[in-house]
Design goal:
This protein is of the alpha+beta class. Helix content is 34%, strand content 20%. A hairpin with a 2-residue loop joins strand 14 and strand 15. The relative contact order is 0.09.
């Protein structure tokens, strides 16, 4: 399936050509004549005897780009699954086929106005919806915040659901979350504002899932099952204590012929038994709690160690910023690389320099430019800049510039990039975002000297 992009005036369209020249069918008419929630509006056009489907993606950015440099929080995972569930349910109501949906994250388009996803329905595509949903579920599981227990739990629960054959997430709507822009309508919202799976096995993970994740997200009740006997014993002991007290106060209720010494021995036995069971229960509880904390600490340490191994990972970079010593104010001096330079120098980072001298240093990739706070790596406040305007990424030592469906366009050396297209960039290239120009430098011709 060939996907292209076309700019018409101020609108940008994703265009898909129909595979054959058959007459428009039932499914095509249904999606063009109805407003189906979370499906991007489609307009069929006949050009030279062939039908093309035009999808309006202006003001949208695809899921793959949106989460290329950040993970999904619990509220974002829950809101996305909520919208996905609503969309798939509506397909059933309109007698449409899930196999005609594109589940690829690169073609799930989020509106930057309300951060709601939009899905593309291609009539007569007839794809494998089970395989597509599984790949989407795997993507969500990989992008869910590993330190957010609820985010990862919901993601893996949906993955398990898809692998068992059910592609519709079973979620409840969540309340509005102004911090991340993922909005629900607040109906039947759980108190914590997160999505709640309506199944008794929502936190149960499928066999074969990574063992580290199993130990982190296993059911809370599993640790208590091993000590069930202690709790039964504790309950029985409490019952005996209550009966003994009642017996002492109202002896006529239990007419037993016991001497005073036998009364005393029976009372002491009940008290000692209760104390023993109580102590054993507390020991069991403390051990299970300590084991749980140790497992979670081990998982967290392993995740942090993995991040340290990847110097270009964004999360590693952010962790380094947070852990940096604020008193470290050593001056860094940039100089041209000379022959015979010492080997312990550190290569400078790629950067963008504007005409007014502003310098943007890119310490990680992908690197997104725009003016949407909490979503971009460098905020550029200007009227012509889109909220998510452009992205620079690095692959095998080469750098690439991508336009992110911006309204005013992205230019490389004066030539406008096609919407959502990518071009290789090198030292000295001029990158223009709308009417703001930057000079790109890889930093390879410079070396950094640390002044101590």
């Amino acid at each position: 399936m060939d996907i292209t992009y076309k700019r018409m005036g101020l609108k940008t369209y994703l265009v898909i050509g129909k595979n054959d020249n058959t007459i428009s069918g039932f499914h095509e008419k249904m999606i063009t004549r109805n407003r189906i929630p979370y499906l991007i509006r489609m307009m069929p056009q006949n050009i030279d005897g062939r039908t093309y489907y035009y999808y309006d993606i202006q003001g949208r950015v695809n899921m793959e780009t949106l989460y290329s440099v950040r993970t999904m929080s619990a509220s974002e995972v829950s809101c996305f699954l909520e919208k996905l569930s609503a969309m798939l349910s509506e397909l059933q109501r309109y007698l449409l086929l899930p196999g005609d949906i594109i589940f690829d994250p690169a073609n799930i388009w989020f509106s930057l106005d309300n951060m709601e996803p939009g899905f593309i329905y291609v009539p007569e595509k007839r794809g494998d919806h089970q395989e597509g949903a599984r790949e989407l579920a795997e993507y969500i599981a990989l992008r869910a915040d590993p330190e957010d227990r609820e985010a990862a739990g919901m993601a893996y629960s949906y993955l398990e659901s898809v692998e068992s054959g059910d592609i519709i997430p079973k979620v409840r709507q969540v309340r509005n979350d102004p911090d991340n822009g993922m909005a629900g309508d607040g109906k039947d919202a759980p108190d914590n504002g997160l999505s709640e799976f309506m199944t008794d096995e929502s936190w149960k993970l499928k066999e074969g899932v990574d063992e580290d994740m199993q130990s982190l997200f296993k059911e809370e009740s599993r640790g208590w099952d091993k000590g069930i006997g202690l709790f039964v014993g504790l309950g029985v002991s409490i019952a005996f204590c209550v009966l003994y007290v009642v017996w002492v106060i109202w002896p006529d209720l239990f007419p037993l012929a016991l001497t005073e010494d036998e009364y005393m021995i029976f009372g002491v036995s009940v008290a000692v038994g209760f104390a023993i069971v109580l102590v054993l229960s507390l020991i069991r509880y403390n051990r299970s709690l300590a084991k749980k904390r140790a497992e979670e600490g081990e998982i967290k340490d392993r995740l942090m160690a993995e991040r340290e191994e990847d110097p270009v990972d964004r999360m590693d970079y952010m962790a380094g910023v947070e852990d940096a010593d604020p008193s470290d104010e050593r001056t860094m001096l940039l100089r041209r690389k000379e022959e015979g330079a010492v080997n312990d120098m550190v290569t400078a980072c790629p950067s963008l320099t504007s005409q007014d001298g502003r310098r943007i240093v890119m310490k990680h990739f992908p690197f997104i430019l725009g003016k949407m706070k909490n979503r971009v790596d460098e905020i550029i406040e200007a009227e012509g800049i889109s909220r998510l305007h452009a992205m620079i990424k690095e692959t095998d030592g080469k750098y690439y510039l991508s336009d992110l469906n911006s309204l005013n366009g992205t230019y490389l050396n004066g030539e406008m990039l096609m919407t959502n297209s990518t071009a290789e960039i090198s030292d000295g290239d001029v990158i223009s975002l709308a009417d703001i120009s930057f000079t790109f430098q890889t930093g390879r011709g410079y070396q950094v000297y640390a002044a101590f």
